[in-house]
UniProtKB/TrEMBL annotation:
CDD domains for the chain: PBP2_NikA_DppA_OppA_like_6
Stated name of the protein: ABC transporter substrate-binding protein
Superkingdom of this protein's organism: Bacteria
Assigned protein family: Belongs to the bacterial solute-binding protein 5 family.
Length: 505
């Protein structure tokens, strides 16, 4: 890649220094197959984690680094969305469909040598359900556990308040990883898990470095001795790192950075599906966003197809509720409140809104938000809504919008089956809809598959009709991978990078 003509006309930025230092450190490694050599791999993610404890932290980047690598759950979710055994070697369901019995693997130990037992699993789940827990799946999973029985060292019985046929899937998500009670308190910075890797380094310069540990399941083997996660948010810097050969894998939504490497002789591009729900989240606690007509107007103002074409390079699907095309029983509801600026203006007048209406638009540091903010602001301006952009770092976004201090924010929710966030008025966008809560409760209680499917459809329609948020897209995932690196996922039912499954040809 040619040097910029002004490259030496100014002092190098902090980003330049970091990139140069990383390049020098990688160049020093002998026997290179890629950026890190045949015994290691370098991955580039857009967002840096603020913690390494996926059971308590909100950012998906936490699980991307630690899930399957440092921490493991009772089950694992495969690339095709199927559930497989992990720390539990098998499970069974009682005739009343409310009690799940898990048989644990024998001989599994944490990195500090402590054994995995049924009592450890119970303590880990009780921590997730405790008052003050910040576990993202607390409402969906842990509040539904009525009792946890441990009849012996290797058996865990979970009895639920209401049936949940998706429980094995939910226990395969990062939020249900098993932490030992003796080390859980410092898992955010000094994680101790049962996975094939342990934390070796975490710094602004070096990113996160994981090294292989010998305490993983005896029957399995991780081919790679080391994995380095680098965190690069700026698309131009991502492209530069790839062009310089500094990374082996770039995990990214499908943007023009991905297109640039489709015909590169050193890399291949994997285009896959995800369960993400990209949306303009709206704060229901603030007027006039508590008026359904205003929320509907905002949805009508957004050109979903134009956003997908310009921001995601055309790689994505328009959606109209908090459900993704990968969800069973998904309804295509994007046409319910279609792009219609005239209708948006009429609804604002009907709601008594005087324009220009000023609503701040907070943007996290993800590339889709940084490049999509201007596009959304232009759409909103066309109907009389002034949306000043607030570009935030990830910590500021978590401390502000994610705690309810915002008007609007552009965000991609990547957790599958997370519709219960709309039953919790304390969640950051503050939806308080008794009708939706009733539908979810009915869905929980009915044993009839046909009735559950009917209610599933009604839940989607209720969210769409009330414009609980302004949904825009489900992104395809564009992963740029150095040729010769095996075991990389194409499709992402959850956001995880299983280093133990990767190897070099």
């Amino acid at each position: 890649m040619p040097a910029h003509p002004d490259r030496f006309a100014h002092a190098p930025s902090r980003r330049d220094c970091l990139r140069q230092a990383a390049a020098l450190s990688f160049a020093a490694l002998p026997g290179m197959a890629g950026a890190a050599g045949r015994n290691a791999v370098v991955l580039s993610l857009s967002l840096a984690p603020d913690s390494l404890d996926p059971t308590m932290a909100a950012a998906s980047a936490v699980g991307e680094v630690s899930h399957y690598n440092i921490f493991e759950g009772l089950t694992r979710i495969e690339e095709d969305g199927q559930v497989a055994p992990l720390l539990a070697r098998s499970w069974s369901l009682s005739p009343d469909q409310r009690s799940w019995r898990f048989d644990l693997r024998r001989g599994v130990r944490f990195h500090d040598g402590k054994p995995l037992t049924a009592q450890v699993v119970r303590a880990s789940f009780e921590r997730c359900a405790a008052p003050g827990s910040t576990n993202k799946a607390r409402r969906a999973v842990f509040d539904n556990i009525a009792t946890i029985a441990t009849p012996d060292e290797h058996t865990v019985v979970l009895t639920l308040h209401h049936r949940d046929p998706d429980l094995p899937f939910r226990l395969g998500e990062a939020t249900a990883c098993i932490l030992h009670p003796d080390s859980a308190a410092h898992a955010a910075t000094r994680p101790v898990g049962t996975g094939p890797y342990r934390l070796a380094q975490w710094s602004a310069l070096g990113g996160v470095v994981l090294t292989r540990t010998g305490s993983w399941h005896p029957a399995q083997h991780a081919p790679l001795a080391q994995a380095t996660f680098r965190f690069i948010a700026d698309p131009a810097e991502q492209e530069a790192a790839l062009a310089a050969g500094e990374v082996d894998l770039l995990f990214q939504f499908a943007t023009r950075v991905v297109r640039r490497f489709q015909d590169d002789r050193h890399y291949q591009v994997l285009i896959g599906h995800s369960c993400g729900k990209g949306m303009l989240a709206l704060n229901h606690r603030r007027a006039p966003l508590n008026d359904v007509r205003v929320r509907q107007a905002i949805t009508h103002a957004i050109d979903r197809e134009g956003f997908i074409r310009e921001v995601l390079d055309g790689r994505g699907s328009a959606i109209g509720s908090h459900f993704a095309p990968t969800d069973p029983g998904f309804l295509h509801l994007d046409s319910l409140l279609p792009y219609d600026p005239a209708r948006a203006r009429a609804l604002l007048r009907e709601a008594g809104v005087r324009t220009p209406l000023r609503l701040n638009l907070a943007l996290p540091p993800a590339p889709y938000a940084l490049s999509g903010g201007d596009r959304l602001a232009a759409n909103l301006a066309d109907v009389g809504i002034d949306a000043p952009l607030q570009r935030l770092d990830w910590k500021t976004w978590l401390d502000g919008p994610f705690k309810g201090d915002f008007d609007m924010t552009l965000i991609n929710h990547v957790e599958p089956l997370d519709y219960r966030i709309y039953t919790d008025p304390s969640y950051y966008f503050g939806v308080d809809d008794p009708v939706f809560r009733s539908l979810v409760q009915q869905h929980d209680r009915t044993p009839s598959p046909r009735e559950r499917q009917r209610l599933w459809a009604q839940m989607q329609r209720r969210l769409a009709e009330t414009a609980a948020n302004a949904w825009i897209f489900t992104p395809q995932i564009g992963t740029v991978v150095r040729k010769g690196l095996r075991g990389v996922w194409m499709n992402y039912p959850i956001f995880a990078h299983d280093i133990g499954a990767m190897s070099w040809e």
